[in-house]
Every structure is written in structure tokens, then in C-alpha cells.
Amino acid sequence: MKTFVYIDHFxxxxxxxxxxxxxxxxxxxxxxxxxxxxxxxxxxxxxxEYGADEVFVADDxxxxxxxxxxxxxxxxxxxxxxxxxxxxxxxxxxxxELAAMSAVDLPTGVLTDISGLxxxxxxxxxxxxxxxxxxxxxxxxxxxPVMATIRGRAFPKPEADSSKSGTPTKVEVKADALTNVEGxxxxxxxxxxxxxxxxxxxxxxxxxxxxxxxxxxxxxxxxEIWRAHQGFALITELANMLGGAVGASRAAVDGGYIPYSHxxxxxxxxxxxxLYIACGISGAVQHLVGMRNAKLIVAINKDADAPxxxxxxxxxxxxxxxxxxxxxxxFRKKLGK
Amino acid sequence: MKIIACIKQxxxxxxxxxxxxxxxxxxxxxxxxxxxxxxxxxxxxxxxxAQGGTVTALCVGTESAREALKHALAMGADEAILVSDxxxxxxxxxxxARVLAAAINKIGGVDMVxxxxxxxxNGSGLTPAQTARVLGWPMLGLAGQIKVQDGSVTVDRxxxxxxxxxxxxxxxxxxxxxxxxxxxxxxxxxIRKASKAEIPVWSLSDIGASAPAPLVTRTELMKPPPRxxxxxxxxxxxxxEIADKLADKILAEKVL
Lengths: 337, 256
Known about the structure:
The complex is a heterodimer.
Chain A: E1 3-6, E2 9-10, E3 13-14, H1 16-28, E4 31-37, H2 41-49, E5 54-59, H3 68-82, E6 86-90, H4 93-105, E7 110-114, E8 116-120, E9 123-130, E10 135-141, E11 146-150, E12 169-170, E13 179-185, E14 198-202, H5 220-241, E15 245-248, H6 250-254, E16 275-279, H7 285-291, E17 296-301, H8 308-311, E18 314-317, H9 320-334
Parallel strand pairs in A: 1-4, 1-6, 4-5, 5-12, 6-11, 7-11, 14-15, 14-16, 16-17, 17-18
Antiparallel strand pairs in A: 2-3, 8-9, 9-10
Chain B: E1 2-7, E2 9-11, E3 18-20, E4 23-25, E5 31-33, H1 35-51, E6 54-60, H2 66-75, E7 79-83, H3 93-107, E8 112-116, H4 127-135, E9 139-149, E10 152-159, E11 162-169, E12 172-176, H5 188-196, E13 201-202, E14 216-222, E15 232-233, H6 239-252
Parallel strand pairs in B: 1-6, 1-8, 6-7, 7-13, 8-12, 9-12
Antiparallel strand pairs in B: 2-5, 3-4, 9-10, 10-11
Helix pairs in contact in B: 2-5, 3-4
């Protein structure tokens, strides 16, 4: 068994699920990490500390920013020369592309967003959600190497051991690029719900605070969004207090209350935090399948019959505009912040 | 500019999909254009409006997929092509990409291919990049904005970490996200035009392709395990009291 794990990072910041993938690889046997980029010594060092037996590194100016073509060509060449049985990736915007393109080169298949992997003889059987998480399939790949992108927080993260180190193996860089990266801006919509341990989410109810008086210059629609922004401010305060991320239902996104990148329950946005607090979300099917794998679900809604309560461990029937700030205060005291 | 919008037909998002005898069933729920692909059609139409040219909706599917193509026509696409062949029942994403690439090559002279970010059914989101790879064209994934100038295209990629501006020469493959803009509703004229449209059906031999053998196959299909839970309602005389009790309950669960 020869397993490779691709360590995905953005400007040197490693996606935590990369280490979870490394842990999964380690559970199957010896594991080699793959690190691409420019000036990535510290990531190589971390890869050894997290348990990689070997690290393949392509450190080159041409790989400074992730770009689909040079990254996939370099990966395909490495896979062809080393013949691993399995290549694991965290599931990110970059790795979906990278795995997809290398799979065309090799050729092999990609199993995406997997939450389980069993070795069955020389076959790997992966578990993954389909139809927005309404169904689960077990799936196999007859190509070699099998490529799989793992869902964040589905596999345990190994402990880093700072006493471990090693010398990486250099990989030949295939620098041909078809795209140029011209710029980057982090934005308020930048959010990674997949890695979040705590998610506080808002739904349509977030715009319904009757005690707010929007500026009279606003029309009805502007006033609704204005109200929703005040509501999401309360949700953001609670999320910040708990070190979590802000999520949203489709209704809130469609209403223009918050960018769609916060949406839970759309295809591919199945989240698995330890704590999920749903505020003013009634619980459409897509939303429920998106969050049902959270360890602990708390629902706050003024409608006692809202379907969201059927998935929740704790529920509060009440006004989120009173309960959410009170909850932020309660945690402020209890957590000593 | 010659623009292709690639679409797929899927069961409606509201459908109660079930696992029946190892197959997916959706009862009598309607089949619709994949919702993410409506954004692809929207993005393609925006480029046509900005640059001039034509939009062709392209779909690999069964005869029923004509309805999804008609939706694209009703939105404003100029023509539609269905690739359908009994040999195509077992496609994986790479196989779909090879078939789409062959059809795109047959259409010829294409400047831009636009996809939705993923489908509601399989949801792996691999096909756009795989199509780009088969064509040997640049891949600009997860675009929230597209600008074409002097034979090159610049997109704002919406990724986990923020927005990244990426540029490539045309022809290129682009996948779009919802920030591209709400898909327009079909107009009355559009619906009339679509109902009368002739949609050519191409077989594998028409596009000079053979049926790609799937490398990824399903071995088992299940309902997700039910969540075993009973809800405990937290009550109190004031929001502060409720919040205090709820915070204690959450802390006792040791999830923080």
C-alpha cells in the first residue's frame, strides 16, 4: 500500500483537512505528503511533524500561486513516476480542480467529498453524499491511483510531533501555465464552513425584528435587508464569542441578506461542526441535510412547529433578537471573556 | 463570440429522492435544468450581451433532457444540442467531459464554455475542469464575474479564502457561482420560441467519440442514518434566564 496525501494551502496557510487526510493515509500504512508552492519549507516541516514518512516537494516560483495547469501537470508526472495506490486530498476549490485534471491525465477517477474510506482487498470503498446529502453512496474507482478528496472534520486530525523531521524529495516541476493570477482580496464573504468547529446560522427570521426602525428613505426591500444585516450582526457576535463561523439558510441568501458562500445545505455544503446553532431557520429539507451531521444542534425559532426542532437537541421557542444577544452575554460570563 | 453553456437535467431540488433497489428514485417529481446550470446560462447570456455572438446550450442526457434545453432556450439561448446515445448510460465525470469535449470540437470555433459549479445529483463538481483538460483549454473555476477583452478573459474566482482575479486567453472553460447574477426568468417570447425549436440530437458516432468506460462506479446506495435525537425545550421567565440555562446545557455537552 502506497498512499500519497496532497497538502493544500493558500499563501502558506494549510487547509486543516490536509492533516486529517494525512492521518487517514497513515492509518492505511506508510504515507508520503505532497507539497507544491514557492517558499514552502515550513509546510514541509509541518508535514513531517504530522507524521509523513516522506515528503515530495515542488518548490518553484512558477508554483507561487495555485494554478490548475502547472499544479495538475506536476502532480500527474509525480503520480506516473511513483505509482501510488491512493492519493488523498482535502476537499477545497483548488483540489477539486487539481484532482479532476490529473485524473484525466493519468487516467483515473476521483471520489469527492468522502466521509468514509475502507480498504477492501486491493479496492477502496468510499462513502460520499449525493443528491444534496439526501442519499449516501458507496463508490469505488477502478483506475490507479485512486484519488479521493476527504470532507473536512470527517477524519481525526493527527497530533503534530515537533521532534519528527526529515529531508524532502524534490519533484520535477511542469511549469506550463494557461492562466495568470492577477490579484487577490480577502472579503467578508470569505468563510470556510467545512473546517468550522462552531457554526451559528441565520435564516429568513433574521430580518423580522419589529423593534427596529429602518431609515425612512429606504423602500421596503432595502429596509428588509437593512433589518437582516442588524440580525446577522447579532449572530456574528455570538459566532465570534464561540470562535465559530457564520452560516445561513438558502432563504437568507436568496433574500440578499448575506453572500451565498455562507449557505449551508446547498450541494457540497454539508457541514459537520461540533456545535450548530440555527437562529430563525424553519428548516427546509436541504438545510436539514446540510447540518444534521453536526454533533450538537441548537435551534432558536419563534415558531414551535418549525421542522428544525426535530433535528435539534436543545430548542428555544422565542425571539432570536432577544435570545441570541442574551446567549452571547451568558457565554461571555461563563467563558470568562 | 461563440459561447457554449453546458447543462444537465436533474430531479427537482424539492424531490423526495429515495434509494430503491440500489437505484435513485424521485417518484413523480419533475426533472429540471440543474439549478447551478441556470447560472451558467445566465453567465453565457451576459457575455453574449456584452460582446455579441451566440449562446448554444449543450446537454448530454436522455430524450427527456430536451426539456432542460428548452428552458435554456426560453431564457435566451440561440440554439440547443442534445447528445444522447444508449451507450452513454454509465458515464462518470471524466466520461461526460470526454463526450462534451467531442461535441464542443464538432461545434467548432467555440470561444468560451460555461458550466455551473456542480450538479445537484452527483455533486462532485469535477466535470468543468475535466472538460477543460480534455480540450487542453485554460480552466477558470468558480467565477463570480467574467470580463472579456481583446481575446482574453478575466474572472473573479470566489474561493474559500476570498476573491482571486485570474486571466487567460480564449478559448477557455469557465465554471460560475451564484454571484454571477440571478438567472433571468424565461420571457413569454422565449417560451414560445423554445416550444417550436428543433433540437438536434447527436449520437456518439455523430461526434466521433466512443463510449468512455466509467472508472468510478457505485456499489451501494443508502439513506443517511437517521439522527437519533429528542429535543429538550429550554424555557424561562426572561431571555437572560433562558440564555443562562441554554449556555450551561451547551457547556455540559463539551462541544466548545
